[in-house]
């Protein structure tokens, strides 16, 4: 009770700062709308995937879904990301022509995950997305650009904005950061042409119903299980009889725990870490100790965490460390892809 009161008081103190941040972002939006700030234009279709809250909406699985389902129409797809949390800086090529040139720490965990999942595509990171787009077109002749996490990044003109909204994220009485989890005032969702509500189930009541935009519902789906060599060693159902310690360094780690237990996995111990967490050998050794304490047979993490775990140079892992690949299932997948194609064709 005391902790909740402290959090409430802290939020009240931060509300003026959140409103100020939101106002600054809104002025910036107006300057782009009025053409005072210019957006770089390019001669290939550009799709932006983003959100209006901080983290945890399933952007990476959605980018993978989009790229795989548009691969028949577009031969050279490039994904351009800022590469949040990476140790490198500037314009960098993460992968091209079935080669990966950076590890998860240098590329950022999400671009690295995308690069491994889409070997036929090009993955580029750059704080200035326009430079990344230009490189993708001039060097690799990309015929489709997907901007990862770019709803607020308006320096590049896009043909389609797809906004992901976490159905479990507070919507009413939410404020811009640092008072709440909003990246900008929530009515800016109207800037998107397609809205996808994520983390829904049969009992989910939508936070709002868009007036004009087509919208879709999605839920996380656990797929293959990978080993430290990134090889598929089975599906989640193959490990239901095992006693598991699970851990995750994502925006809402408890969602991973829930997804595992909903899939019938026996999670005896769970550890959550902050989003983009950089694991250390000490972290992993502590996880192994906890696993042995609870007599677990293996450790399960997310695919996003796997890349960083692979950079650790422990001599020997006393228990198997495996990762679960997560994807999204949609209420109407065919209609979603058809709508994406129609929107891109309409604007070109």
CATH class of the largest domain: Alpha Beta
The radius of gyration is 21 Å
Ends distance? 55 Å
SS class: alpha/beta
Oligomeric category? single chain
In the CATH scheme, what's the topology name of the largest domain?
A: Rossmann fold
Name given to the CATH homologous superfamily of the largest domain? P-loop containing nucleotide triphosphate hydrolases
Output mean pLDDT: 92
Question: In percent, how much strand structure appears in the residues?
Answer: 15-25%
CATH architecture assignment of the largest domain: 3-Layer(aba) Sandwich
Description:
This protein is 33% helix and 24% strand. It is of the alpha/beta class and 348 residues long. It has 2 domains: 10-219 and 330-347, Rossmann fold, CATH 3.40.50.300; 228-319, Rossmann fold, CATH 3.40.50. Strands 1, 2, 3, 4, 5, 6, 7, 8, 9, 10, 11, 12, 13 and 14 form a 14-stranded mixed beta sheet that branches. The longest helix has 32 residues, at 2-33. It starts with a helix and ends with a helix.
């Amino acid at each position: 009770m005391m902790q909740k009161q402290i959090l409430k008081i802290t939020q009240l103190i931060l509300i003026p700062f959140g409103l100020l941040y939101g106002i600054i972002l809104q002025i910036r939006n107006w300057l782009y709308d009025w053409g005072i700030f210019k957006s770089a234009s390019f001669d290939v279709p550009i799709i932006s995937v983003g959100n209006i809250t901080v983290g945890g909406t399933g952007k990476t699985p959605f980018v993978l879904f989009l790229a795989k389902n548009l691969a028949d129409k577009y031969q050279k797809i490039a994904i351009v990301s800022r590469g949040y949390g990476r140790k490198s800086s500037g314009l960098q090529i993460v992968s091209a022509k079935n080669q990966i040139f950076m590890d998860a720490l240098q590329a950022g965990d999400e671009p690295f995950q995308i690069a491994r999942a889409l070997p036929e595509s090009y993955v580029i990171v750059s704080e200035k997305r326009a430079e990344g787009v230009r490189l993708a077109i001039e060097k690799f002749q990309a015929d489709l650009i997907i901007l990862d996490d770019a709803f607020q990044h308006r320096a590049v003109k896009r043909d389609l904005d797809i906004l992901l909204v976490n159905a479990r994220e507070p919507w009413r009485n939410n404020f811009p950061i640092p008072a709440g989890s909003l990246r900008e005032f929530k009515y800016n969702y109207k800037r998107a042409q397609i809205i996808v509500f994520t983390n829904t189930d049969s009992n989910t009541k939508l936070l709002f119903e868009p007036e004009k935009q087509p919208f879709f519902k999605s839920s996380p789906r656990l797929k293959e299980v990978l080993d430290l060599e990134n090889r598929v060693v089975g599906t989640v159902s193959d490990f239901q009889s095992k006693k598991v310690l699970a851990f995750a360094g994502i925006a809402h780690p408890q969602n991973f725990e829930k997804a595992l237990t909903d899939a019938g996995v026996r999670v005896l111990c769970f550890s959550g870490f902050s989003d983009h967490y950089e694991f250390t050998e000490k972290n992993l050794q502590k996880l192994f100790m906890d696993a042995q304490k609870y007599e677990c047979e293996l450790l399960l993490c997310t695919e996003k965490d796997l890349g960083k775990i692979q950079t650790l140079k422990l001599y020997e892992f006393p228990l198997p460390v495996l990762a679960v690949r997560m994807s999204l299932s949609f209420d109407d997948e065919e209609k979603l892809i058809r709508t994406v194609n129609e929107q891109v064709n309409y604007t070109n």
